[in-house]
Write a structure and sequence with these properties.
The protein is mainly alpha-helical. The chain is built from 17 helices and 3 strands. A 3-stranded antiparallel beta sheet has the order 1-2-3, with helices on one face. α14 (358-380) runs antiparallel to α15. The chain is globular, with a radius of gyration of 28 Å.
């Protein structure tokens, strides 16, 4: 026993020493860090696809532009798949070489229409003019390192203008326009700040909606007990709802579903549902707090009426143009978006006068907006998704959404008016779905028409130059 203990200790010490002993290192060939042109092309494609997808570009357009780049630079075919936040590029290089696969996780970001247009134009230039790879890499690096964007003051002012434009459409006076501008300005600041600190979309929307509702309630309370001025708190809440609903990528989600990118479509639709749910929660909590303090808002559509047609068009112009500016659009794109928004609003009013239902009228107007956006985007060098998103903002059912929410808060479930409020709320949802589906239909219809028109216009231009 006495001999076994020292032997056990000596063996343990020997094993410890062998772990920490320094042995001669074998020579190892280091892998070269240089990239082949094929790999550089795949990396370039992945970078452009990630940026476009993060800013809300539909998956079909991202894949189409990306495959145009790989077909230009790569000899072997490339497969690309998009699953909302996950982008996969795979290249089969034959039986004698390993396949290449790149996977990147995309982080959603605010849309920058100038950056989207720059990346789309670069992708088309690579496909059509066969731009050299090193020049394309330099262009991408410049676009991403020096993005063109408006100042934060302009972005927040655009949010205020969206709210003010809604007031103009409903014939509000100058005081109401000023109050709605301030409320929209501050609400945009709140949204941007919450996004920077990492707050999720649901709570950001709920917080901004709660702020807008409480701000309107505070103004109504001050008006009841001191100001004695003609202020419509209901209209202020509606302007805040339109501001929050305007930024949702509903059209992109429907377009992905139509293009059969079902995973991406489901994810985006769920995000839209959660964002809308945040608005509903924020408004409901705000209305509940207001009613507890004895502040009531009118909840019937009869209390609000649209302004005359000239003010309606002016309000639609302000709302659509301000939304485009809020997403860093070029100033020329502001004009295009505003005019398309006015045209879509005119179509919807014309159909309502002709006896069509508001759901059908909104859907047809959105279809016309989508078609016009696709046909004019190449002419004005402005993303079609930007024109569509800005053009349909005046069609957002802010009034119906508010009336439904207010009815749900004021009436208990046993009250027959509660079911009426739910019906109004569902009608608002149907209007929103009709607008999204119509815009997607117009976009889908406009693509083949544009492909058919562009070669003919190009041929006519060449013939005129020859003459």
């Amino acid at each position: 026993m006495k001999r076994k203990v020292p032997r056990f200790i000596t063996q343990s010490l020997a094993r410890i020493a062998s772990i920490y002993s320094v042995e001669p290192m074998h020579s190892l060939e280091k892998i070269d860090d240089s990239l082949t042109p094929n790999m550089r092309a795949l990396r370039l494609t992945m970078t452009i696809a990630e940026q476009l997808l993060s800013m809300g570009v539909v998956a079909h357009d991202v894949v189409r532009l990306s495959l145009g780049i790989t077909e230009t630079y790569c000899r072997r075919p490339v497969h690309m798949d998009v699953c909302y936040t996950l982008i996969t590029i795979s290249q089969d290089r034959g039986v004698d070489r390993e396949p290449l696969t790149m996977i990147r996780v995309m982080v959603p970001d605010y849309a920058n229409y100038q950056q989207i247009q720059a990346l789309q134009s670069l992708a088309l230039e690579i496909r059509n003019k066969h731009l050299p790879l090193h020049i394309a890499e330099q262009r991408v690096e410049k676009i991403l390192s020096q993005p063109k964007r408006h100042s934060p003051l302009v972005i927040c002012a655009s949010g205020g203008l969206i709210s003010a434009g809604v007031i103009v459409m409903y014939n509000g006076d100058l005081l109401m326009i000023g109050l709605s501008f301030i409320m929209g300005f501050v609400a945009t600041i709140v949204l941007r700040w919450l996004w920077r600190v990492g707050m999720t979309t649901f709570y950001s929307q709920a917080s901004a909606a709660l702020f807008a509702t409480l701000a309107a309630a505070g103004i109504a309370w001050a008006n009841m007990y001191g100001l004695r001025m003609d202020i419509n708190a209901t209209l202020l809440v509606i302007s805040g709802i339109v501001l929050l609903v305007a930024g949702l990528m509903t059209v992109g989600a429907f377009q992905d579903a139509i293009d059969e990118f079902y995973i991406t479509a489901n994810a985006r639709l769920l995000k839209v549902i959660m964002a809308t749910g945040g608005i509903v929660v924020g408004v409901v909590i705000g209305l509940y707090i207001a009613t507890k303090f004895g502040i009531t808002f009118p909840a019937t559509p009869d209390r609000l009426s649209l302004a005359d047609k000239h003010l309606q068009y002016l309000g639609a112009l302000i709302v659509a143009a301000a939304f485009a500016v809020g997403n860093h659009a070029r100033w020329s794109g502001l004009i295009v978006s505003g005019l398309i928004g006015v045209f879509g609003w005119w179509i919807s009013r014309l159909l309502l006068i002709a006896g069509f239902d508001v759901v059908v009228s909104s859907g047809i107007a959105a279809t016309v907006i989508g078609l016009m956006a696709v046909l004019t985007s190449r002419l004005w060098r402005f993303p079609s998704m930007a024109i569509i998103a800005a053009g349909i903002v005046p069609l957002v059912p802010g009034l119906s959404l508010y009336n439904g929410l207010m009815g749900v808060v004021l009436h208990p479930p046993s009250d027959p008016l509660f079911m009426t409020a739910l019906a109004i709320l569902m009608r608002a949802v149907m209007i929103g779905l009709a607008v999204a589906a119509g815009a997607s239909l117009g976009n889908m219809t406009g693509r083949p028409i544009r492909r058919w028109l562009i070669p003919r216009f190009r041929q006519e231009a060449i013939e005129e130059i020859k003459q």
